[in-house]
């Protein structure tokens, strides 16, 4: 994990026990984002994305933190091994952050009263992206900022509003219940209306939420990546609600299912109230060459 010094912009490697307290930036990518190579060359100050880095560092310094992590410039994305390790570790990194700054670049809060978030929370891009789901849930403390870096609320203070918009239970947002206490179908439903630029990321962005790891295979397609994610989940839980889904076409026209596995989180839309039901007797689950072998 690389961290940026908020005063000197020095980048250092941080491992395990020597990891200093740090802030972490959650944002949606825009034009002229600063890559790891841009940052290393020191010629990124003219890029629009550098303003986010500067502002996040200033805020972290104000909050008494010396280090900050930002996904655009702290990961060498030219290394497939490093990118895979980072994505598999990202949920943990967000959960360990002292503070998470959620930057809503398309929101302007009038009069510093937080009204901007209340008015725009249902349309701001941050609440529609796949990656920001874990960035909302994992950190203990999240502070929301508008486009001018004006604070407009915290995850705790805005929990009721966020829960209403995202359908994530209050107990999960407030930290009184862990995500693992909710059914697989419920957690999938939280991502059902979210999108990712790359198709495979709709699976990769959910690994931390389900506590699984798997290799990244960009180019395999979103449905294949999501199938692999579901198979990994099947290996770790007796929660059979993973099979409780239906496409909208199936619901409306009573169509036939072509697979026991869903094609995307969108197939779990409306299934957020399903609760965990584990079998009385545990039996092995396996994917064979002719399909899923499971006792229900």
Automatic annotation (TrEMBL):
<dbReference type="InterPro" id="IPR058525">
    <property type="entry name" value="DUF8212"/>
</dbReference>
<feature type="domain" description="DUF8212">
    <location>
        <begin position="224"/>
        <end position="247"/>
    </location>
</feature>
<dbReference type="Pfam" id="PF06985">
    <property type="entry name" value="HET"/>
</dbReference>
<dbReference type="Pfam" id="PF26640">
    <property type="entry name" value="DUF8212"/>
</dbReference>
<feature type="domain" description="Heterokaryon incompatibility">
    <location>
        <begin position="22"/>
        <end position="106"/>
    </location>
</feature>
<dbReference type="InterPro" id="IPR010730">
    <property type="entry name" value="HET"/>
</dbReference>
<protein>
    <submittedName>
        <fullName>HET-domain-containing protein</fullName>
    </submittedName>
</protein>
